[in-house]
Model the fold of this input.
Amino acid sequence: MLSALWDLLFPPRCLFCRQRLAANTILCSHCRLQVLEISRCCSLCGYPFPARSNGNCPRCSGQKFLFAHTCAVGLYAGQLKEAIRRYKYGGRTEMAAGFGKLLAQQITKCNWPHLDAVVPIPLHPQKLRQRGFDQAVLLAEVVAKELALPLKKSLRRCRDTVSQTQLSAAERRRNLEDAFSAVQAGQMPKKILLVDDLLTTGATANNAAKALLAGGAEKIYLAVLGRS
Done:
């Protein structure tokens, strides 16, 4: 009764494009096409292989990542990009629930071995004060609940870095160098699911993984909303 009344007053809408939906769905049929097929993506960096591919990834070939595997909901483009921007910069914190469920569904499709904990890549405290919320933490909370895993805040952002948006790949790597440190060293989970909103060059995730491995983690799996 209450659920039906709620749906009448606030009809479900597609998380990406805001089109009205039937109950208990997250995406419309059109936006569902933006969700990546895990079997057709690079297991290391999460980027989809070209239509004609010999198994070599065009995005991460020759790169050395400290995380072992990656999965993403979709490419950072189109309606997904706009939705992530609404969530991240528009203060739409309620979108974390839908995003977290989608990401958990993608992670399940990867058939990764048992993970010990979910760890978000945190904002620096100064950036957190400016934004008012940490998008990766909210996302990780939902993912942890969906996968029945503990949430561990095992990373600290110890340096407030400049925005990565306009930086080259080399500048991104320099910008993020030693930006993270491990929390709870000696009590670090061994197999960690690292969660963030975006993966571009991998500089942020790589430096976060570096800190976790230095703190005692053994293997890092990465999950993001958007891959660019």
About this structure: The chain has two domains: 1-33, 39-50+64-162+170-227. The CA atoms of residues 108 and 143 lie 11 Å apart.
